[in-house]
Amino acid sequence: MNRIFSGMQPTRQLHLGNYLGALRNWVSLQDQFESIFCIVDLHALTLPQDPAVLLGNTREVTAAYIAAGIDPERCVIFNQAAVAAHSELAWILSCHTPMGWLNRMTQFKEKAGKHRENAALGLYAYPVLMAADILVYKATHVPVGEDQKQHLELARDIAGAFNRNYNQEFFPLPEPQILGEATRVMSLRDGTKKMSKSDESDYSRINLTDDADTIALKVRKAKTDPEPLPEKAEDLEKRPEADNLVTIYSALADISKQDALDQFAGQQFSGFKGALVDLAVAKLAPISTEMNRLMSDVGEIDRILRIGADKANAIAAANLADIKDIIGLLRP
Ligand code: ATP
Ligand code: MG
Q1: Is 111 among the catalytic positions?
Q2: CATH hierarchy code of domain 3-183+297-327
Q3: SS3 of 49, please?
Q4: Domain assignments of the chain as residue spans, ordered by start
Q5: From the candidates 194, 218, 257, 283, which is the catalytic residue?
Q6: What is the reported pLDDT for 91?
Q7: Ligand 1 centre and the CA of 19: distance in Å?
Q8: What is the pTM of this model?
Q9: What ipTM was estimated for this complex?
Q10: Active-site pick, 138, 149, 197, 238
């Protein structure tokens, strides 16, 4: 049986990168796969969080999933901390993961910054917890943005190492699904950095909850170069900011970058930005309206998360029991 697992951290509000690189793809995949979507609150702890804000963000990300089109009747939606098997399997897998594999992870280097000695152990071990998130459900497919490719390769390596060590095909090797035109949306302020929730500048990203005026302001302030839009998509290669805005437009419009350029070639960015604002507002306004409606009944969100946690726990606990039997951990 094919099963997908994916998640987002409740670190601030979701942005256009999360939506175009992952969430939108989840919505179309839920028809083909048994789907498990997590709000990965334990991952959020790898950097300092305010407890009340973390709690609020967990509910808001849940609302964003549902508002974007994830059906809580058909899919399992829950928060990671509610299913203890994630943490238990993370420990077991960390004992099967050479430190050399983790030393290669580029996200740790970026997030730890200059003072690596002060970074939390959890930030370093994060990819092992991510492997556990996926493997505890024996998920076969993992739809993510391009930035998670390296972590997913590590999850495959860990699964393969476990299978070889215990001489059985227990874990399927999870397939990354990096889909669509916008697998790596870049910051609006710097075309060489990815759009991130953790970027301190709110002008670097468009949040799913931004209103029309905020979207207009952010797009107007977005960095570009003085050249007009080119005729050919290849001519965007050395123009990261221009490339990013055209990528966002084409992904939102569901057309190729070349089709977008066929409409705007030769125009200045000021005109194109107006069209981009209109499109972004048209696509995001229904999501934020629905999010606001859902957030007005927190009890209902908590109910959905509770039902999801029960379903997730049933699968995860059974797999964890098998894993304990395989490795010789007594279950009295
Ligand atoms: P943080 O800065 O806290 O790490 P984030 O913006 O990177 O936040 P995550 O919660 O880490 O978001 O990632 C959730 C999902 O969104 C993942 O599948 C990730 O690959 C995807 N994603 C994140 N940023 C982008 C982006 N800029 N473009 C495309 N996909 C993205
Ligand atoms: Mg991230």
Answers
A1: yes
A2: 3.40.50.620
A3: coil
A4: 3-183+297-327, 209-292
A5: 194
A6: 98
A7: 9
A8: 0.97
A9: 0.99
A10: 197
